[in-house]
Design goal:
about 90 residues; mainly beta; four-stranded antiparallel sheet; three-stranded antiparallel sheet; 7 strands; globular
Length: about 90
Amino acid sequence: WLVLEMTAQVAVFDYHDGGFKQTQLVDMKNKGVEEKNGGGALHTSPDGKFLYVTNRGDANQVVVFRIDQASGKLEEIQRRSLEGKEP
């Protein structure tokens, strides 16, 4: 996975035959809301089933994704406000 800071997106890649191929692009912006966003740090859960990504700026949240164990693709399952100043 790769966080695209300026667009607040997460790119998912698959590695085959010595190269990477993008398989998914996930938007972390809040739909229908005009605000400053910025992708930040990402971490996986110890069991490898979840990906946590910070969305900085006005959004000020952590976005949680379920990781498909076969493909590595992401499914958003939760957004959590940090109720403070940027993560």
